[in-house]
Amino acid sequence: MAQAATPPGASRRRASGSGADSAWASGGTLFAGVLLLVDGVLAVLNGIVGIAKDDVYARFGQYVYRFNLTSWGWIHLVIGVLLIITGFGILRGALWARGLGVGFAALSVIANFMWLPYQPIWAVIAIALGVFIIWSLLTDRSRLTT
Question: Are 108 and 43 within 8 A, CB to CB?
């Protein structure tokens, strides 16, 4: 008996998942890659400002996680470069980048939580973006075969 031809990409879908779920997850992964790039560029810019000028950021109140602003600049610079590299990897479809993206996004969430007294509004936005990136990368099953 002849088998029916399967449409392109059908083998990538899970048997229990629908095509709409897969499309949302795939689109979310693409968006997560772009967000990693944008978050990385902004972290690099924050880092450069923190390294170059210690008086740009003002701290609001006392906070347990206090570092020198130059130290925060280097932390943001390194995390930003890692996010940019990982974002390019995700956009190219590299599976290694998805795992690193989750790890580096989690690291970015932690760093932005500790950065709250210096830029509270942006830190909360960056934390929300990091959580979305983690969710998006962990729920995309479009590249897995059944």
Answer: yes
* CA 11 – CA 117 distance, rounded (Å): 48
83-126 pLDDT, tens digit each: 999 999 999 988 889 899 999 999 999 998 988 887 888 889 88
d(CA 108, CA 125): 12
Q: Judge contact between 48 and 63, C-beta under 8 A.
A: no
Rounded CA-CA distance 11/16 in Å is 12
Distances (CA, A) of 87 to 20, 78, 96, 98, 106: 24, 14, 11, 9, 14
> Whole-angstrom Cα distance, residue 90 to residue 101?
8
Tokens 């020198």 label which residue? 68
Q: How far is CA 76 from CA 46, 111, 119, 122, 142, in A?
A: 7, 8, 13, 13, 32
pLDDT surpasses 60 at 50: yes
